[in-house]
Amino acid sequence: MAINSIWVVVELTDAGPTTTSLELLTAARGLGSSVDAVAWGTNVAANAGVLGEYGATTVYDIGDIGDALPGSPVAGAIAGAIAGGSGPDAIFIPTSYDGRDIAGRLSARADLPVLTNITGLVGGDTMTTQHPVFGGTQIVNASFTGNGPGIYVIRAKSFAPEPSGGAAASVSSLAVPDLGTTNSASITERHVEERTGPKLDEAAVVVSGGRGLGEAANYALIEDLAKLLHGAAGASRAIVDAGWVPYAHQVGQTGKTVKPDVYLACGISGATQHMVGMKGAKNIIAINKDQDAPIFTIADLGIVGDVHKVVPALIEALKSH
Amino acid sequence: MNVVVCVKQIPDPAAPQSLEPGTHTLDRSGKLILDDSDAYGVEMALQLAEQAGGGDVTLVSMAPNGETSGLRTALAMGAASAVLVSDDALKGADALTTAKVLAAAIKKSNPDLILTATESSDGYTGTVPVQIAELLGLPSITFAKSVVIEGGNVKVQRQTESGYDDVVAPLPLLVTVTAGVVEPRYPSFKGIMAAKSKPVETVTASDLGIATGAAGQEITSVVDAEARAAGEIVVDDGDGAQRIVAFLEELKLV
Ligand SMILES: Cc1cc2nc3c(=O)[nH]c(=O)nc-3n(C[C@H](O)[C@H](O)[C@H](O)COP(=O)(O)OP(=O)(O)OC[C@H]3O[C@@H](n4cnc5c(N)ncnc54)[C@H](O)[C@@H]3O)c2cc1C
Ligand SMILES: Nc1ncnc2c1ncn2[C@@H]1O[C@H](COP(=O)(O)O)[C@@H](O)[C@H]1O
Predict the structure, then answer these.
(1) Between 20 and 30 A from A111 (CA), which of A64, A215, B100, B214?
(2) By the 8 A CB rule, do B227 and A139 touch?
(3) Cβ of residue B245 closer than 8 Å to a chain A Cβ
(4) What is the value of ipTM here, to two decimals?
């Protein structure tokens, strides 16, 4: 089935749409003849300008969902439009905490298949989706076979966000149907962790640490180095699971995808699940004491050495630079 | 309190993985093991049932070839019984079909709480749990890093982009747990022996009233990704840091 109309699920923060949302709008523009956004919250109309600039003709406003988690109301509203015959041919959803909830609920509610972990899309009579497997060494091409609309869950950093210069999107409200008991979870308090410096997935430089650091206290070296390079500090899952650093730092298949100018891996072996999240970096530097560590197969500069020596020396060198 | 834990049995992630030539789906014909990610759900369930003063922890799994090794591991941890859905017709099932099967199997136990991992290690769609919740008409809280039951409510610390949210919902519901929510126990020798005789009920898709048909999606091809060439590898002779500085200088980053 040809794809004409695409709806993009857009996540809004106080500072505007998330970068991934803008990436998806940009991708949709090149694939469908009409692109609209779906958003919720109290500030949808205030974002009509930027959404139009990135290609949305209309933004469907689900409205204020209060303290509810977005999964049920947003999926319900989109499923309602599909059932009423006014749905699109394809729905793009960011791979995020809430995005996956929305995708799962929508799929089950509208009885539609869903494709996840998409990192590339090729248009045509049937749109082809690309999914990295085996640490990104191979790409699986897939497509929907039945009647649409298909649900596409797309990973961050798969497309570069570019404004099209479009006029502000028109705002049209999208009703939330009866959700029964599916919507009875509510947020009672939000805890925002302090962050200094750029966001992990937006930083030009990412310095990551792994189990090779030896102990949690040594992660301070990674943070110091990241700060000196005006970058962000990342981590392998091994040290997130060990409780050394919060999950928000994790890079990889189950963490963040990063595409910085420079990625510096310190004491990280380079497991496939880690590499799939960072091999898109322009330049990769690795420090590892094992010269056979897989990370060296993709490093532009590999230092076979001890992180406890090389990293402090690097910090000193940069301080006096 | 009765808890159902969804546990997936997967090819050992440490062993080489391959795709089947015809279908391009993951080759699951060999021995399967308990997905590590699901050990957290099993442990959480055992602790919550105990704190509630008792109740059954039931495992639900869908796997080919009547596979039970992973289930036996989770039974050895302390779960009471298991339901296994095994059916050739489910080979290559997509996420929604998997969710329909699991939802139907879960329904039979009428649980107060359903626990799953946030995503499986071999499929990692991350959508199966919420699809199950929607099919059963239940609320869900995903990405739990802490789960507490108080009265008829579940209180969860839910991981977010910038920290975490406190989220509350009434039972029954589905919760997906992250690694690190609890420390999974190692099965004891006694547990392993006891697991051998714990009940595992094996059912087919049609027993559950699930129609199996073509999935709504197909893999058309698998290609090699553009390889990243390795660069220069140097052994640190005390000049490692300088080499990095020089590299960064060339990129005009310092
Ligand atoms: C489903 C699934 C999803 C996963 N998702 C992710 C993910 O998103 N992100 C992720 O990172 N991982 C993920 N993993 C885990 C992954 O498989 C690896 O276990 C993990 O990346 C290893 O972390 P590490 O490199 O820090 O530790 P290790 O593999 O233990 O490597 C430590 C490295 O440090 C080196 N080293 C030790 N001491 C020193 C020293 N003094 N100086 C220099 N080098 C030293 C060692 O040579 C070794 O190479 C996932 C796994 C699964 C099964
Ligand atoms: N075949 C299965 N059997 C049992 N549980 C499953 C199965 N598939 C998925 N799950 C559960 O759903 C979670 C998410 O799976 P997925 O959507 O495949 O990433 C898994 O971690 C399991 O807890």
Answers:
(1) A64
(2) no
(3) yes
(4) 0.94
